[in-house]
Design brief:
With 287 residues, the protein is mainly alpha-helical. The protein has 10 helices and 4 strands; from the N terminus they run H-H-H-E-H-H-H-H-H-E-E-H-E-H. The chain folds into 3 domains: 59 residues; 155 residues, no CATH class; 50 residues, no CATH class. The two termini are 42 Å apart.
């Protein structure tokens, strides 16, 4: 956790520095060099951030479905997928409602990156399913059956693999739809829902059945005289408080974007990103 706090703080400073250079400095060669330097520093920092967060889960040997070497690669590729999807959605909204313009080739690149990362993400998850099913370890099989069709969280399976997996992948690999901003944005929304389903699946199933049936066990939250306040088996189900916390985080993110549009000049930004026309992009950002 300490390493995670440190790397998150470093990443935040890098992001704020890049934002400062992009919107308070006059675009010139020096600024471009500084932005490239921050990008080269930020990329390994981003990998470290998601890997360390993944290891917080992956090194928990007492939790089914968490203790796997695939956890860090899964988190990294999911971050690439969800980050690209979120950027695509935001730019699409700016293009629809704020007059921004993104070149067709850039939409193809965004869609292609999402398609590749989505395929890798699903391959990692399938590899995890296959490994658990082949080994047949009882505690791990209990967790896997909760995810697969017919299980308690089967809805997350269909959301992850069909709505947020196969459908957006087919949408993003077709050359005809890949150059359409609306199609790429639709694929981004679907892919983002699939990543979110996986995160719910991961945290919920990993906490559903503890592997160590020893005291004190899971707190029941109530006290009965003469009886233990702990149980050794059980299932974790998120409460309405936890769902509202998630909604609050989403609302906070939306507020940050709104503040950026209102006070940092994003509303006047006209993105005319053409291949090989960096000067036009600079003038648009300056405007």
């Amino acid at each position: 956790m300490i390493w995670d706090v440190v790397v998150v703080a470093i990443y935040l400073l890098l992001a704020l520095s890049e934002l400062h250079l992009m919107f308070t400095k006059t675009p010139n060669e020096k600024t471009q060099r500084q932005l490239r330097t921050l990008a080269f520093i930020g990329l390994p920092t981003a990998f470290a951030l998601h890997s360390i967060t993944a290891w917080i889960f992956g090194l928990q040997i007492s939790h089914t479905f968490w203790n796997t070497a695939l956890m860090a690669p899964l988190f990294v590729v999911s971050a690439i997928l969800s980050g690209t999807a979120l950027i695509s959605i935001i730019v699409w909204l700016l293009q629809k409602f704020a007059g921004a313009e993104l070149h067709e080739s850039t939409w193809r690149k965004l869609g292609g990156l999402m398609a590749i990362s989505l395929a890798v993400d699903l391959f990692f998850v399938f590899s995890e399913y296959l490994t658990i099913a082949w080994a047949g370890v009882p505690n791990e099989m209990v967790a896997l059956r909760m995810i697969l069709p017919g299980g308690q969280f089967a809805a997350l399976f269909w959301l992850e693999w069909v709505i947020g997996g196969i459908i957006p992948f087919l949408l993003l690999v077709r050359p005809r739809t890949l150059r359409l901003a609306d199609a790429v944005a639709t694929g981004a929304v679907l892919a983002l829902s699939g990543v979110y389903a996986f995160q719910i699946e991961l945290t919920t199933v990993g906490m559903a059945n503890p592997l160590i049936p020893l005291a004190p066990g899971i707190s029941l939250g109530t006290y009965t005289p003469g009886a233990s306040v702990f149980q050794l088996v059980g299932q974790y189900i998120p409460t309405w408080v936890e769902y509202f916390i998630v909604l609050g985080l989403v609302a906070f993110g939306a507020m940050l974007v709104t503040v950026g549009i209102r006070y940092l000049g994003f509303g006047e930004l006209r993105l005319k990103i053409m291949d090989g026309h960096g000067h036009e992009a600079q003038k648009a950002a300056q405007a």
